[in-house]
Write a structure and sequence with these properties.
Layout lengths: L2 H16 L3 H42 L4 H25 L17 H16 L2 H18 L5 H25 L1 H7 L2 H28 L6
C-alpha cells in the first residue's frame, strides 16, 4: 500500500531534479559565489515555495473536483500537460548555459542569507512553468488517490516523498556546484533535456492510462 505513493513521489521528484532550468543555474551561482551557506539559503527558499505551491494546488484541484466527471477532466488535463512538457523538453527546449558568468565571492551576512532565501522563493514562485507543473501533477495524483482507501494519506505521502527527494538532490547540487558547473555544456544540457522529456512523457502516459482504465497502477 505504501510502496505505490512512494514510487510516484520519487518519480515526480526525479522529473524535477533532472530538469535544467533557471533554478539549477541560480543554485550553482549562489553556491560558488556565497559558499554552501548561500546555496542552502537559496534551496530552502525554493523548497518553501514548493511546499506552498503544492498545498495551494492540491487545495484548488480538490475544490474544483465536485463530481467524478470533473475529476477525470482535471486528471486528463494534467496528464496531457505533462506529456506536452515532455515533448517540449525532448524536441524544442534550447540548451542555454550561464557557465561563463564571472564569479565574485562575497562575505555573506545574515541579511544576505535572508535576501538569498527570498530570491530562491520568488524565482520559484513566480515561474509559470513551476506553477503549471504543480497544478498538472496535483490534478493527476488527485485522480490516482481515488483508488486508495485513504486518499488524503496517499496524496500527502506522494508529495512528501517528492519534496524530500527533490530537496536532497538540490542539497547535493550545492555541494557539487563547481563540478556541475563545468559539466553543464550545451551538449550535456541537450542530453539532460531529452532524458527529462522522456521521463515526463512516460509519467504522463502512465497517469493517462490509469485514469482512462480506472486502474492507476496501484498494485
Amino acid at each position: 500500500m505504501l510502496f505505490s505513493p512512494i514510487i510516484k513521489g520519487i518519480a515526480i521528484g526525479l522529473m524535477l531534479s533532472v530538469s535544467v532550468g533557471p533554478v539549477i543555474f541560480a543554485i550553482i551561482k549562489q553556491s560558488i559565489n556565497n559558499g554552501h551557506r548561500g546555496g542552502m539559503a537559496f534551496i530552502i527558499g525554493v523548497s518553501v515555495s514548493d511546499i506552498i505551491l503544492v498545498s495551494l494546488c492540491n487545495f484548488f484541484t480538490q475544490l474544483f473536483s465536485s463530481t467524478g466527471t470533473l475529476e477525470k477532466i482535471i486528471g486528463f488535463g494534467g496528464s496531457f500537460f505533462l506529456i506536452g512538457l515532455g515533448l517540449y523538453n525532448l524536441f524544442l527546449k534550447k540548451s542555454v548555459t550561464k557557465q561563463d558568468e564571472v564569479v565574485i565571492k562575497v562575505k555573506l551576512s545574515k541579511r544576505g542569507m535572508v535576501s538569498i532565501f527570498f530570491s530562491g522563493f520568488l524565482m520559484n514562485t513566480l515561474n509559470p512553468a513551476v506553477i503549471l507543473f504543480w497544478i498538472a501533477t496535483s490534478a493527476s495524483i488527485m485522480v490516482s488517490a481515488k483508488t486508495f482507501p485513504h486518499e488524503i494519506q496517499y496524496r500527502v505521502l506522494v508529495f512528501l516523498t517528492c519534496l524530500i527527494f527533490n530537496l536532497s538532490v538540490d542539497i547535493s547540487k550545492v555541494f557539487l556546484a563547481g563540478k556541475i558547473r563545468n559539466r553543464l555544456t550545451p551538449h550535456n544540457i541537450h542530453i539532460i533535456n531529452r532524458i527529462s522529456g522522456v521521463i515526463f512523457i512516460i509519467f504522463g502516459c502512465v497517469l493517462l492510462y490509469g485514469i482512462y482504465t480506472g486502474h492507476v497502477l496501484n498494485h
